[in-house]
């Protein structure tokens, strides 16, 4: 699952750190080491099932009131609500 | 059904959450639905029957919504097992209908590809086709059918005739000779396979579906307000406030008509039948007992109407989003919001709805506090006491004081629920990571009125069935307790003073006396265990038998003369917490699979109720309301 995401010059950003209005493309799902209650494989499966696959267009639409969490993310043409903690598994470019 | 070749069909509906599966189910089966449980588990089993144009009888099961066949919750396990034909006691579906929201095909196509691997005959239904067309989505149906390798049919579940094509294709499918069964090659997908199927699904979409250049801006514009950190929360509170004002004031005229109707009926029985046991049984036991519960039907209809409207509109998922961190502070999952909101109608469906929470501990916490949400069965008790003791005047110019007290009682329930959840998390599960909150926020859609009407009808029917069975038998019991043994001949005291009810009531009165409860309340609380609203009917019966028919008609005014304000407030406080619902406790036992959690729920709620009543009563008396 580990991919070299340093090519292309642009620095990768984790969705979990992205602010409202951020737009990007899913570069990889890296669920190892993410502080989620879910097992990394399970977390990765669920993210994929909700459309977070490599190449998907992402836009952070809304942030919650407390700690800007959770976030509402446009993933291609659907909207997904996710906590920042789990969104740390989504690597954007 | 005239010819032999019209063998009955078994169909199963599968789809992702928000695919419009329920409205399609409602469109196909109308009111011919049966809601029950799958054996051994408490997942709701919704089935219905309909007849195709050819006259074929079809049984349709609405399977729990899922994004994949992986089965990460008991609901999803059931969907998978029925599709695979390995659920004991459940018919193997002859045809699986996979429902897709045409405006949002990505996630469903991946599910279709997974379903294909099961080898079960499959048909894809492109639902909400009209909305998709309006938004500029065009689908090459034939090409899609070829690419996916399954028949594809479009439908508009909400429009008359919108499912004609689906019915026709079902007949065509049934008329063909049954194809040789294909062995299921399905197995749980690995992450790499999951990716591969999603890519395949995306390729098919690129090939057969053209998406509009302009995306739907309506949802974005509404969300700008609804999901705004501040405006969104203000709106959420306003929605809840209006909902409870509506429950209290809109239902009132209809309730008065119902109450008057039952009183007239009781009077008719009284005048027609000779004085005696049968007359008393019919008038005081049956008519006034069941009548005083059925009177609350309008409120239950309104609360379900609002919940279903909000859900259909797409607001419920937004509410979960707004509440996630706030509830998270109290140790709750954002997804708990929907079960807890359902608990305002009734804790039983609410507790059953906690199955959407996959983490066991999050689920247990939600189950523990769900009964603290003010369920509709408390409304009769609250309404009775509020209308008897709280003046109906306007405060701040436009707010009804009675409605305000009602709102306060709801708030007290919510606040205590959050507090209990916080304590549970702090003491029981201090060292545990919160479970993830991942939820699709569907595009807003105009609520489908027919579908909502069917939903409200189904629930109203369930309430009436309960009123007709559990509550009726409890009413007969309470009438019996209040009528036997008969008073000695020639006595001038009310008959009830010689009854079993009086004996029981007096026996537990010392325990409840510190709360300001008299023995009549003590008597009413016992059958109230069957269902909270029965307490009102029981009070009616107790006082009706004591004071004659006038008392039964005007129980509210009677209470106002018999109880002090402190007693009334104390009883309101008791009902915020009282663990008085045998069916809720039974559901907790079933859902948690242990007597322990049932006992814990009962014990903590009883303790809270006793404490709250005690404090309320003492303060009220000290302030001179005793």
Task: Explain how this protein is built.
The complex is a heterodimer of chains A (93) and B (626). Chain A is α+β, with helices and mostly antiparallel strands and 93 residues long. Chain A has helices spanning 40-49, 84-87, and strands at residues 13-14, 23-29, 57-66, 69-75, 78-82, 90-92. Chain A has a single domain (13-92), classed as Ferrous iron transport protein A (FeoA) (SH3 type barrels), CATH 2.30.30. Chain A is built from two helices and six strands; from the N terminus they run ββαβββαβ. In chain A, a hairpin with a 2-residue loop joins β4 (69-75) and β5 (78-82). The radius of gyration of chain A is 12 Å and the shape is globular. Chain A starts with 12 loop residues before the first strand and ends with a strand. With 626 residues, chain B is α/β, with parallel strands linked by helices. Chain B contains 27 helices and twelve strands. In chain B, the strands form three sheets. A seven-stranded mixed β-sheet of chain B has the order 2-3-4-1-5-6-8, with helices on both faces. Chain B has a two-stranded antiparallel sheet with strand order 7-9. A two-stranded antiparallel ribbon of chain B has the order 10-11. In chain B, β2 and β3 (44-51) form a beta hairpin. In chain B, α9 (231-249) runs antiparallel to α12 (297-313), α11 (277-294) runs antiparallel to α22 (534-547) and α19 packs across α22 (534-547). Chain B is globular, with a radius of gyration of 27 Å. Chain B starts with 8 loop residues before the first strand and ends with a helix. Chain A binds chain B through residues 1, 35-38, 41-51, 53-54, 61-67, 69-70, 72, 76-83, 85-86, and chain B through 67-68, 70, 72, 104, 106-107, 110, 189, 191, 194-195, 198-199, 202, 211, 215, 219-220, 223, 227-230, 232-233, 317, 320-322, 324-326, 328-329, 334, 359, 432-443.
Secondary structure layout plus pairing:
The complex is a heterodimer of chains A (93) and B (626).
Chain A: E1 13-14, E2 23-29, H1 40-49, E3 57-66, E4 69-75, E5 78-82, H2 84-87, E6 90-92
Antiparallel strand pairs in A: 1-6, 2-3, 2-6, 3-4, 4-5
Chain B: E1 9-15, H1 21-29, E2 33-37, E3 44-51, E4 57-62, H2 74-83, E5 95-101, H3 106-116, E6 122-127, H4 129-134, E7 138-139, H5 141-148, E8 152-154, H6 164-175, H7 191-208, E9 209-210, H8 217-226, H9 231-249, H10 252-272, H11 277-294, H12 297-313, H13 315-329, H14 337-342, H15 347-353, H16 360-369, H17 378-389, E10 394-395, E11 399-400, H18 401-427, E12 438-441, H19 449-483, H20 500-512, H21 519-525, H22 534-547, H23 549-553, H24 555-562, H25 565-577, H26 582-592, H27 595-622
Parallel strand pairs in B: 1-4, 1-5, 5-6, 6-8
Antiparallel strand pairs in B: 2-3, 3-4, 7-9, 10-11
Helix pairs in contact in B: 1-19, 3-7, 5-7, 9-12, 9-18, 10-11, 11-19, 11-22, 12-19, 15-26, 16-18, 17-24, 17-25, 18-25, 19-22, 20-21, 21-22, 25-27, 26-27
